[in-house]
Amino acid sequence: MEGRQPEDPTRFDVILGRDSNPGLAKTPFGWFRLEAARLEGGRLNLTILGNKQLPPTTDDIRIIQRAMALLSDVKVWNKDDDRNCPSNPQKWSVFCALMQATQEVSGGVHYRQPALQAVREVVNEVGGTRVNKHRLMDYNNHPDTTLNDIHNMLRVAQTRLAERLR
Description:
Radius of gyration: 17 Å
Helix content: 25-40%
Mean pLDDT: 86
Number of domains: 2
Strand content: 15-25%
Strand order of the largest sheet: 1-2-3-4
Number of strands: 4
Structural class: alpha+beta
Distance between the termini: 32 Å
Shape: elongated
Largest sheet: 4 strands, antiparallel
């Protein structure tokens, strides 16, 4: 089920596994292993291991790297993000850079992609009073946030993703 926006809480994707692979549930709360899926009398029954978020993949590392490349210079950094990402922008906010990078690398955007979750985890730690309702937008737009802060946040997220891959 898909909402209007990638962050819509009704967005829910199920990818059934093949052979012995269990499958994947992409929920508004993270990506989890799908243990079982049964269709019984027009009703879909799912068993999701909600206590075990799936680990990142190399695509998640590539998403962070691409977002950093899009935010290469202060001249292309949009410091006035409204979370509406235009096509072919002249400037990128951290939110829109991550959305674009996710689209380019994985072919679609899911708000709880492990790469985006890792960035949010870092913002939770470093954001302090700079964040409120929309972490990425608030941190991006805060007057005290510099592009160097954004790059450092992305580097920390990338390092953590790489550690989780090992």
